[in-house]
Amino acid sequence: MPPTDARPTIPPLAGLCDFDSAQRPGLSVEECVAWHKRNHYVLKRLFELLTARITAEPQYELKTAFSHHAYLCAEHVTALRTRVSEMREPPLGLEEVPHPALELLCNEVLCAPTTDELLRGVYGVLVPALIDSFENYIATTNPLADAPSVRVARFALLELREMNEFGRQAIEALGTRAGMLDWMTDLYDCLLAAGGLSGRQPESNVKLRPGYSAKPFEFDPVPKRDARFHDSFNGGVNPEAFLYDERFSPRDKVLMLFYKRLREIDVPEMMASIIHQTPGKPWKYYRDMSRQLWDEARHAMLGEVGFVSQGIDWSSIPINFTWSLNLNTQLSPRDRHAVLYFIEQGLMPRNGKRFEWEVATESGIPLAKLIQDFDWADEVLHSQIGREWYVTEFPNLNTALSYGDRCWSTILSQWQRYLDESLTEHRNWWPELYRSACARWGVTPDPAALAFDQTYAEVRADLKAITGSA
Asked: Which of 17, 104, 264, 400 suits 321 as a labelling partner, its CA being 20 to 30 A distant?
């Protein structure tokens, strides 16, 4: 008997599929594009509604998760837009509503009046519908002819499934409110009326009518925080003044760095308002701004982790929210962006992100160095985003920076009013935090650091005098 060739066989068709799968009829280009547009529409609406709910969502874990998931949706929207552009010449019709029932579905979730209902709409209906749609797409299309689309769908599924698992746990944590199931049935009816998210199922003739969305959504610009955030009007400690004071040690300054990072949760609260209230921009604007918003939420969580690493209960510290509150309620979206860019690009150039990284490096706390290393890298990206979407509206960079400085100067800090109205006592929380950290470190507090008591009464974060403090 002749010897057999025992060598393993190289997989055919670049490992994409077998020959049987490659011969299935699959979908035409027209059918693929129609399906992509439906997935694109719901992902885009999901990005928009999650962003719109960040500012007014009090639960910290949800505020940060919405920031993350909105960004993921934006990335998958971008991938679908790219794929459709490869399959059809303009006009692509990506801004069109593919079916009125899908529009009603997304409007209902956007207008959900409670966090419980919002979670059910997002993670109980929209995300599972997207998962089902992408799974069916992969199972239906020709895996060889349409390999680029399959790749887009597979990456979307990877993150949608993670989003779904987060949502499942969040829903379980909050429980189900009475009467919510009736509303969810209405959401499912929208999907049935649309022929499913894919549009390839028979459309039901169920009668649809607006529920919560009968009243148009109104964006709430006032930041909300959960019970762990207390004394949020407190401006009794100016961490920048401590950070740039050469008398204090890098190790002690790390506490202020952790505070500054955690306090950055007010940036997503403010950026969400810019994104939501700035219609009509090219899609890349929203994708880029969503990335920056997510980075800022991530910085806040890194600050949280920094405190946890030192055994410090961050909820014992007043995390001020007046920056996002005042910008959202006193400035236009464009002027808010001006302030954001001025801070990102022009905030204390001699003591910027490199300085913070150097402080963290000299502190001897490896996690602090890591946090500031990535914070610095992210800010480089944010500066590029600002140059593309803000600076280009001005004759030159200096004019753009000057305008941002002027916008920041017009904001009333209201430090004294908060005190007069008993919203805060502007308590100096620093000595308590510092003593706690020193006890954990087994060191004696530095008397000069312990005595630090500079506030935001007359000086803003870049140490410039506040001209309007009423």
From this structure: 400
Task: Indicate the CATH number of 25-214 among 1.20.1260, 2.60.40, 3.30.60, 1.10.3470.
Answer: 1.20.1260
Asked if 134 contacts 156 with a C-beta cutoff of 8 angstroms, the reply is yes
**Beta pairing partners, 465:** 459
Sequence-separated (6 or more) residues with CB below 8 Å from residue 13: 19, 22, 144
* Count of Cβ atoms closer than 10 Å to residue 207 Cβ: 7
pLDDT at position 469, please?
46
The separation between the first and the last C-alpha atoms of the chain, rounded to the nearest angstrom, is 99
**Predicted confidence (pLDDT) per residue in 43-99, tens digit:** 999 999 999 999 999 999 999 999 999 999 999 999 999 999 999 989 999 999 999
| pLDDT digits 0-9 by tens, 382-411 | 999 999 999 999 999 999 999 999 999 999
Q: Please give the distance of CA 259 from its chain centroid, rounded to a whole number.
A: 19
List CB contacts of 273: < 8 A, sequence separation 6 or more. 55, 219, 221, 327, 328, 333, 336
Instruction: Indicate the length of the chain as a whole number.
Output: 470
Q: CA separation (Å) from 286 to 71, 293, 389, 394, 416?
A: 9, 10, 10, 20, 37
Q: Which residue(s) pair with 345 in the sheet?
A: none
- Cα dist from 68 to 97, 295, 385, whole Å: 25, 9, 18
CB 137 within 8 A of CB 35: yes
Considering the chain, what percentage of its residues have pLDDT values greater than 90?
A: 90
In the prediction, which pLDDT does 2 show?
57
Q: How far is CA 284 from CA 49, 75, 82, 379, 413, in A?
A: 18, 10, 11, 18, 33
Domains of the chain: which residue ranges?
A: 25-214, 239-450
DSSP letter for each residue of 294-321: HHHHHHHHHHHHHHHHTT--GGGS----
pLDDT at site 363: 97
- E strands, 65-112, are none
Residue ranges of the chain whose pLDDT lies below 70: 1-5, 176-179, 346-351, 467-470
CB neighbours (10 Å) of residue 9?
6
